[in-house]
Design goal:
Elements: H1 7-16, H2 22-32, H3 38-45, H4 49-59, H5 73-80, H6 82-97, H7 99-104, H8 106-129, H9 134-143, H10 146-155, H11 161-164, H12 171-181, H13 185-195, H14 200-207, H15 219-235, H16 243-253, H17 257-263, H18 272-286, H19 290-295
Domain HDOD: 17-212
Pfam family, one: HDOD
Protein name: HD-like signal output (HDOD) domain, no enzymatic activity
Length: 297
């Protein structure tokens, strides 16, 4: 049993991470102001050519399926909207921050990035199923395990990527993580987003995606990411699970999930799980380039 807290080491690591680019804070201010115009947003992004290129590439990706090519940043803002542009900017900045650790530990982290991206897609799909604005949920899903990257940077070989990055997080595993490191990746991830001044909804989604019952009024965000996390892990199974297997795995790994879902009066039909998983499999093919776009220079 660990007797000394490792929390100060993690806090120090988070403080050492570079701040997000000025573009990010400007975009967040502009998109939060109802009086802002598309021109205001364009002026904030134009000086950052890497960000402009990222937005245009994503706007023209198969994931969005635009029949007509988006040729300018102005057009992208009009087509995608303020919220989607903000989420692309946030995702690009967050992924870029950890780009170097991926280059130096590629073999260990390939599965991590694949899971993170798949979870983002799954969260987007679940949100659309619920009739919610999906862009913010994609970012929540994409970043849901970023606390693990901060813990890997802090504890190096003591935080075993082969264990913590590939297995689905159960209540038992979460307790073990806290016992060994004085905290959990969910708590570290929420602190990271707070350090970056991300919206409270995203911070809450990361903090409680394994414990939605503690999320208070923001439980809906946590439930969406929790289900997305589960679906993403199922995509990594050696054989594609059928509907029965999906239900058994959900009951085994997240006991009481459906009770929490029903308590929120969220729609759930007999075929919902199978439907969402099939939808994810399709989007995963269409969106395979998105992560590379976000991580590119």
């Amino acid at each position: 049993m660990m007797t000394t807290s490792r929390q100060p080491s993690i806090d120090k690591q988070l403080e050492a991470l570079p701040p997000l680019p000025l573009t990010v804070s400007q975009v967040m201010q502009i998109t939060a102001d109802p009086l802002s115009s598309a021109n205001d947003l364009m002026k904030a992004i134009l000086p950052d050519q890497a960000m402009c290129l990222t937005i245009l590439k994503i706007a023209n990706s198969a994931l969005y399926g635009r029949p007509k090519k988006v040729a300018s940043l102005e057009s992208a803002i009009v087509v995608l909207g303020f919220d989607e542009i903000r989420n692309i900017v946030l995702g690009k900045a967050a992924v870029t921050t950890f780009r170097n650790i991926f280059k130096t530990r590629r073999a260990e982290l390939e599965k991590f990035w694949d899971h993170a991206f798949t979870c983002g897609l799954a969260a987007r799909i679940v949100a659309e199923h619920l009739g919610l604005q999906s862009g913010q949920f994609f970012i929540a899903g994409l970043l849901h395990d970023f606390g693990k990257l901060a813990m890997l940077l802090t504890f190096e070989n003591r935080y075993d990527a082969n264990r913590w990055f590939t297995e689905i997080t159960t209540t038992t595993q979460l307790a073990r993580e806290r016992e060994l490191f004085s905290t959990t990746h969910a708590e570290v991830g929420s602190k990271l987003l707070h350090h970056w001044q991300f919206p409270d909804t995203l911070i809450s989604a990361l903090r409680y995606h394994h414990t939605p019952g503690q999320a208070g009024k923001m439980i809906g965000y946590a439930l969406v990411v929790q289900l997305a996390d589960f679906l993403a892990h199922c995509c990594a199974l050696p054989e594609r699970p059928d509907d029965r297997a999906l239900k058994e795995l959900l009951d085994l790994n997240i006991p009481g999930f459906l009770d929490s879902w029903h308590e929120r009066n969220l729609p759930w039909e007999e075929m919902t799980l199978e439907y969402l998983f099939a939808w994810l499999a399709v989007d995963r093919k269409h969106g395979s380039s998105i992560l590379d776009i976000l991580a590119s220079s």
